[in-house]
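Reading a protein record of the kind used here takes little practice once its layout is understood. The reader may check this reading against the record printed directly beneath this paragraph.
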Amino acid sequence: MSTKKILSKLLQIFLQGLIILAPIVITIWALTSLFNFIDSILPDIIEKFFPGFSDYNLPGVGFVVAIVVIFLVGYVSSSFVVGKLVELFDSILQKTPGIKIIYTTVKDFFEAFAGNKRKFDKAVLVAIESPDIWRIGFVTREEIEEFGLHEYVAVYVPQSYAFAGHLYFVKKERVRRVTDLTSADAMKFAISGGVTTIDEDTAAKNG
């Protein structure tokens, strides 16, 4: 076997190992980083008031406490009294200059994905530059008359390999609703640059 073929074979084996390990390692790294971030929030706060607390801190306690606090806040917020307090506090933050920009942006972002105002659940194909070239997008507003556009909708188009995208105001006639895929599959397909595999069973159920 020639040296060129040996190097080619070694490169092929290396790339095969990279394809297997890279997604696993990156996923573990992302989950570990998220866990460590959440786990450090409570100890960092306590450390400011009680120096030396970190010497007795057990890994994972901060994460468990944070999850419990989130569940408790979600549970008690359904009560009438706490709900009114939350609404009052929310109203104050939304009217405070400077703070309202950050607060409302973060709040709308989370509600767009998981709240009652979920936005990324209407996957569409949208023609932006040319009527024959389609992009995957998500309708976030059905009416945008406040911008003086009466026959348009707001469409968010995600970028591939990035958690970013662009917002377009597009005529309704240039938007085609996607009915054969779930919104999650459409988002995954767009972010992956079209290389991800769509679950055939899921597509069949939605077809």
